[in-house]
Amino acid sequence: MPVRMNNVGIVVEDLAAAIEFFGELGLELEGRAMVEGDWAGRVTGLGGQRVEIAMMRTPDGHGRLELSRFLVPDVLAGPQNAPVNTVGYLRVMFTVDDIDETLARLGKHGAQLVSSEVVQYEEAYRLCYIRGPEGLLIGLAEELG
């Protein structure tokens, strides 16, 4: 039985842009580090890896994203811009206070709505999916009432 979820890991090619994007969303940079050495390669099965990471946390302190930029070995192409029904990593969803204001801020960093609108689910939420840096799928939810 897990005690808690530690973090969600996302591999990116442009670490600075990803930090800026998730910072604009409200996550706080907890720290940056280089991860390398025999122990790291044994954990991932990649051998002699060298990875620059940035750990970001949600303002409430309960959620964390580990952004990773692989220097060695080279990054492999993934399912960028894959539709939401693709097997594997789907999306990370964040609750925001004002979805329209958040979209305006993230739009300055290249975020685009996946569909053409923000949708309301009953009287509970306004929801949307956006594409963030490098095509990452991000969900936004604004609680109503």
Structure in words:
The protein is an alpha+beta fold and 145 residues long. It has two domains: 65 residues, 2,3-Dihydroxybiphenyl 1,2-Dioxygenase, domain 1; 52 residues, 2,3-Dihydroxybiphenyl 1,2-Dioxygenase, domain 1 (Roll), CATH 3.10.180. It is built from three helices and nine strands. Strands 5, 6, 7, 8 and 9 form a five-stranded mixed sheet that branches. The chain has a four-stranded mixed sheet with strand order 1-4-3-2, with helices on both faces. The protein is globular and about 50 Å long.
Topology:
Blueprint: E1 8-11, H1 15-25, E2 28-36, H2 38-44, E3 50-57, E4 64-72, E5 92-95, H3 99-107, E6 112-113, E7 119-121, E8 125-131, E9 137-143
**Order of helix and strand elements from N to C terminus:** EHEHEEEHEEEE
Question: CATH homologous superfamily of the largest domain?
Answer: 2,3-Dihydroxybiphenyl 1,2-Dioxygenase, domain 1
Structural class: alpha+beta
Euclidean distance between termini CA atoms: 34 Å
Rounded to an integer, what's the Rg over CA atoms? 16 Å
In total, the number of strands is: 9
C-alpha geometry: globular
Q: What's the main sheet like? A: 5 strands, mixed
Counted up, domains total 2
Task: Give the oligomeric state of the chains in this entry, treating copies of one chain as homo and distinct chains as hetero.
Answer: single chain
Number of helices: 3
Give the overall average pLDDT.
Answer: 91
CATH topology annotation of the largest domain = 2,3-Dihydroxybiphenyl 1,2-Dioxygenase, domain 1
Q: What is the percentage of strand-forming residues?
A: 35-45%
Q: Give the % helix.
A: 10-25%
CATH class of the largest domain: Alpha Beta
Stretches where pLDDT is under 50 for at least 5 consecutive residues are none
CATH architecture of the largest domain: Roll
